[in-house]
Design a protein that fits this description.
- InterPro entries: Cupin_2 (IPR013096), QDO-like (IPR053146), RmlC-like_jellyroll (IPR014710), RmlC_Cupin_sf (IPR011051).
- The chain has helices spanning 137-141, 159-168, and strands at 31-35, 38-44, 53-61, 69-70, 76-82, 84-90, 96-102, 106-109, 115-119, 123-131, 143-144, 172-173.
- By secondary structure, the chain is mostly beta strands.
- The chain has a 7-stranded antiparallel beta sheet with strand order 8-5-10-3-2-1-11. It has a 3-stranded antiparallel beta sheet with strand order 7-6-9, with no helix packed on it.
């Protein structure tokens, strides 16, 4: 299957209602975006929950850790649906919680904590829940897509695009910090 990308300036067809209305999605539906080597699919946004929370999935092959980052006012969870994902989270005392989560495992990142993750298995899928609004960071930093699989070639945003998305979604990157070797 060839990925169909939404070009800048085009409005992708949204499968989300954009307001607190009952709805259902079939498997694979949602607002999809590629960022790095990952496919993010937003299943529920802050628009539907009056800003309370967003729900998304992430699917990716084994790869490198994403840049260490923190979001001051965004809480985030990782629930592994399939595969193995290493998460590293800095606690309030600066200690690092570094664990490989496997299918069915859960991790929580409180707002303001530096963290990163890396897929350890050949492929992994996670369910994420975050404070409402943050779920749209992935499309802003990467690119919207109609594809239902991770990108064959990683989508690496320009420094400007990543910086703008980080500022808009209250995300701070720490490129000089490594939490996972």
């Amino acid at each position: 299957m060839t990925a169909e990308f939404v070009r800048p300036g085009e409005s992708p067809r949204s499968t989300l209602p954009g307001s607190p209305s009952p709805f259902v999605l079939a498997a694979g539906e949602g607002e999809r975006a590629h960022l790095f080597d990952q496919l993010f699919t937003v299943l529920l946004s802050g628009d539907e929950t009056e800003g309370q929370f967003g729900v998304f999935t992430m699917e990716a092959p084994r790869g490198r850790a994403i840049p260490v980052h923190a979001h001051d006012d965004v809480h985030e969870i990782f629930y592994v649906l399939d595969g193995q994902v290493r998460v590293a989270i800095e606690d309030a005392d600066g200690e690092i919680l570094d664990r490989v989560l496997t299918t069915g495992d859960f991790g929580y990142v409180p707002a303001g904590r530096r963290h990163t993750f890396r897929v350890e298995s050949l492929r992994a899928r996670t369910l994420g829940v975050s404070t409402g609004g943050f779920e749209r960071f992935f499309a802003a930093a990467g690119e919207r897509t109609e594809a239902t699989a991770p990108p064959a070639v990683p989508v690496i945003p320009s420094g400007e695009q990543l910086g703008e998305a980080a500022q808009r979604f209250r995300n701070e990157f720490f490129h000089d910090v490594r939490l996972i070797d």
